[in-house]
Specification:
Keywords: Covalent protein-DNA linkage, DNA damage, DNA-binding, Hydrolase, Lyase, Protease. This is Abasic site processing protein. Its EC number is 3.4.-.-. By secondary structure, the protein is mainly beta. It contains four helices and 13 strands. 35% of the residues are buried. The model has no long low-confidence stretch (mean pLDDT 94). The chain has a single domain, classed as hypothetical protein yedk fold (Alpha-Beta Complex).
């Protein structure tokens, strides 16, 4: 799964990187994004002449039939294997795909009685784009979003059996467009190898903690 991640670039930087119009209204950076937090996403907007917009959504997709927001934390991820057929996710996958910008994501590995946190991030510091789907919910059409996940591979599989569904830049337009195609093909081995696995300290485990210090390596840590 992907239950915690970092997205720290400014709206101006994200707008430039994704060639999108910024309509986020001051969403700040976070080194510890948690379920139900507001997050940036890139989507196609009919009101902007079908241009890309950098927008904000609540993390945890709510289908139209949800009576309240209590189930949102359980809907932060959509499995790529079933997203096209799931009653909760299929309508959004067909019509409301989006990109979720990230610097990297966190997972934990249990070693005895302890849990070691790891941060997965591009070695060159480039932006990640998670494949996402969004849906409006409630009378006010609150925007909600889920991040797709897929089977982890390589060193990432040693941390967790799932990983975010990552889209390289040359596939952004295809994902956001109306064309079908092979949308759910995995990233290449070369793209996978460009992602580092870095141990970080335990502070990221508390959702109240935030700041760049969460990415610092602990005094003593091993990769696995």
């Amino acid at each position: 799964m992907c239950g915690r991640y970092a997205t720290t670039r400014s709206e101006a930087d994200l707008s430039d990187l994704f060639d999108a119009v910024d309509v986020t209204e001051g969403l700040g950076p976070s080194w510890n994004v948690a379920p139900t937090d507001p997050v940036p996403l890139v989507r196609i907007s009919a009101s902007q002449a079908d241009a890309r917009v950098l927008d904000t959504a609540r993390w945890g997709l709510l289908p139209p039939w949800a009576k309240d927001t209590r189930g949102a934390a359980k809907m932060i991820n959509a499995r790529s294997e079933t997203v096209a057929t799931s009653p909760a996710f299929a309508p959004s996958f067909a019509r409301r795909r989006c990109l979720v910008p990230a610097d990297g994501w966190f997972e934990w590995v249990r070693t005895g009685k302890e849990r070691q946190a790891f941060y997965m991030t591009p070695a060159d510091g480039s932006v990640l784009a998670f494949g996402g789907i969004w849906a409006p919910w409630g009378p006010e059409k609150m925007r909600t979003v889920s991040v797709l996940t897929t089977a982890a591979r390589g060193d990432l599989a040693r941390v967790h059996d799932r990983m975010p569904f990552i889209l390289p830049p040359d596939r952004w337009a295809e994902w956001l467009g109306d064309e079908g195609g092979e949308l759910l093909r995995p990233i290449t081995e070369r793209e996978l190898a460009a992602i580092d696995v870095r141990p970080v300290g335990p502070a990221v485990g508390n959702v109240r903690n935030n700041g760049p210090q969460l990415l610092d390596p602990p005094p003593k840590a091993t990769l696995f």
